[in-house]
Amino acid sequence: MNPIEAFEKLKDFYNKRSKIVHGGGIIPHDPDRHLISCYTRRLIIIFLILLKSKKRREISKNNKKVEILKEIDHAMLNRNICDYLKKEIDKGLKDFKLSIPRTFEGKGEYGEYIVTAW
Known about the structure:
The protein is mainly α.
């Protein structure tokens, strides 16, 4: 997953969401809208991996989210922390590998489609 592309797509999705929520009307069809579920799924998996750490489990419930986000922010500024988190996440990803396809693409009677199963 290209992080810059994901960032730009998420920013675009958020702007479209804001337009709808704040009464900006209907937005046109976005052929990449299925990506939001892919990004969300990946972020949830990463948080679950990070929450497995004993050190992070010991953080109080009220501070856990803030502390993990701060750790991620610091990783963007410190190469050693970044490398450590990447290794931890890569190691944990093996527990989430599924052989079942999650996205189905094709052409139907009404044109191309993309369906995300979950």
